[in-house]
Amino acid sequence: MKLNVLDVTLRDGSHSVRHSFTVEQVRAAAKGLNASGVPYFEVSHGDGLGGSSLQYGLSKTDELKLIEAAVSECTTSQVSVLLLPGIGTKEDLQSAASLGVKMARIATHVTEADIGAQHIELARSLGLKTVGFLMMSHMAPVEKIVEQAKLFESYGAEIVYVTDSAGAMLPKDVTERISALRQALQCEIGFHAHNNLSMALANTIAAIKAGATYVDGSMRALGAGAGNTQTEVMAAVLERLGYETGIDLYNLIDTANDVIAPLMQQPQEITGSSLILGYAGVYSSFLLHAQNAAEQFGIDERDILMKVGEMKAVGGQEDLIYEVAQNLASKREVVP
Ligand SMILES: C[C@H](O)CC(=O)C(=O)O
Ligand SMILES: [Mn+2]
């Protein structure tokens, strides 16, 4: 059976390197991904097109320059962009499409698919392969996910993703969600994992067994929180399981070793704090913000993440992290 691997190193990995990718780094990674036969890979700010801002982190290099460099290296791979309505605009999507991007993934919180309608319609009208990406999917019961995925499909999405943004799911959670979507939808289904509970590859396999045909990964697992399913490991395991990915494993390992490993700012490991992301169900890209806030207010970053998890904060509420840290600090001061 044929599976479509989508590498997110040059987008989700952007969180992990504080949005510091350069044209040279992107060009080298894109060249390697293309030579390895990875069918799709994503390039944009970690929070999608238009994400460069004080709220989400400023990009070192304009993402359109990164996208242009990536597209220029592709002979067979196709470049995807992520767009969160409210962060990225229709104009951002049009600019990316004019550079030769072939896929758009429109991402909303799992209960807010309706805010993606216009962007999905635009992506289709631009001739892009169009994906609806349901973030923080662990927060909604199966029926809600089915309802929201059907909305995406009705707007024209050709693939709907279950996205474990917090790395909080266990294989049974993935199986339940993907199986229900497989029964309810006509379109293809994808899965995007984070490794905060060390479940990323197991969850990805559960998703495939339940009917997902698109699966995400990142080289060296470079991504928000504890990172994603590691693309080169996934390629090897999928081949061993008898799936066809069309990926040249040695070429991909070389790209991970020679291009990605040298640019990593810290090892992509499950630290105490990234474990708490998964345990408390917190958006993975909150990790570096929590670290900044912890340092600023002298608070344990795990306490901030636990509180943010209790509050069921969702993507876009990064400023809440600083409020929580400030609150914890003020309480600590009054306790003798
Ligand atoms: C904007 C987020 O980083 C998208 C994503 O990769 C996720 O929710 O996971
Ligand atoms: Mn992610």
Automatic annotation (TrEMBL):
Its EC number is 4.1.3.39. It comes from Ureibacillus terrenus. GO terms for biological process: L-leucine biosynthetic process. InterPro entries: 2-IPM_HCS-like (IPR050073), 4OH_2_O-val_aldolase (IPR017629), Aldolase_TIM (IPR013785), DmpG_comm (IPR012425), DRE_TIM_HOA (IPR035685), PYR_CT (IPR000891). This is 4-hydroxy-2-oxovalerate aldolase. Residues 3-253 form the Pyruvate carboxyltransferase domain. It comes from the Bacteria. Mn(2+) binds at D12, H192, H194. The gene is dmpG.
